[in-house]
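Lecture notes, continued. The same structure-token format from the folding unit now serves as the input rather than the output. Read the line below as a description of shape only.
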């Protein structure tokens, strides 16, 4: 069963990095938090000035098939896809030049946004390794009684990946970047009519979550054309 995407902008408003700032600085003035109006402004223009959102991709740009995955780091079905399917796709299709794979973040909640910001913190070269770590330990880092505890759990994963606290805090507190990520997510999800995760766009056509065998059948059929 796919997890439905919450369309309300209020969900995005509470998800921004300003919320992280509040968790770490509970006595900070309210002006440190971005407002709903700021989020609406960003979503309306589909960008945040000075904050670039990089496409996270693996495989040859000349591959005959392009697979775009829409995934949330807090989605159990997405974690299962990365555990049971993605590794084989990488070995058999991505690394062999048959497909280009693009992973796009979906934000159900502030925690998924924070996880995505952490995964992206050191750029494209380390994104997929960090993504695998976040998905593989999803049941661990999503346990907690407070926002601060979940942030601390995520930062533990960052340390495993070799990041220091200053680097992680710099990424997680970057409010302009958070707004740009939310705007890019909504723009892409609207364009591709994404209503749940994981969802896939394969050579321009939308597909639901699939088993490894079904994925192979779909890809092999397209490659044979």
């Amino acid at each position: 069963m796919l997890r439905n995407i919450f369309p309300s902008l209020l969900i995005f408003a509470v998800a921004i990095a300003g919320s992280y700032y509040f968790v770490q600085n509970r006595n900070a003035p309210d002006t440190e938090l971005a407002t709903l109006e700021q989020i609406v402004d960003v979503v309306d223009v589909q960008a945040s000035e000075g904050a670039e959102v990089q496409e996270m991709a693996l495989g040859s740009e000349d591959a005959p098939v392009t697979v775009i995955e829409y995934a949330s780091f807090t989605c159990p079905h997405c974690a299962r896809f990365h555990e049971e399917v993605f590794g084989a796709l990488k070995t058999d299709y991505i690394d062999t030049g048959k497909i280009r794979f693009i992973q796009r973040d979906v934000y159900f909640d502030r925690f998924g946004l924070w996880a995505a910001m952490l995964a992206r913190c050191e750029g494209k070269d380390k994104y997929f390794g960090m993504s695998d770590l976040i998905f593989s330990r999803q049941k661990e880092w999503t346990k907690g009684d407070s926002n601060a505890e979940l942030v601390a759990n995520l930062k533990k994963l960052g340390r495993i990946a070799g990041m220091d606290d200053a680097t992680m805090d710099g990424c997680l507190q970057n409010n302009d970047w958070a707004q740009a990520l939310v705007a890019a997510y909504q723009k892409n999800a609207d364009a591709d009519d994404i209503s749940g995760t994981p969802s896939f766009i394969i050579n321009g056509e939308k597909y639901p979550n699939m088993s490894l065998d079904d994925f192979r059948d779909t890809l092999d059929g397209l490659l044979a054309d």
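Point for the exam: The CA atoms of residues 143 and 183 lie 28 Å apart.
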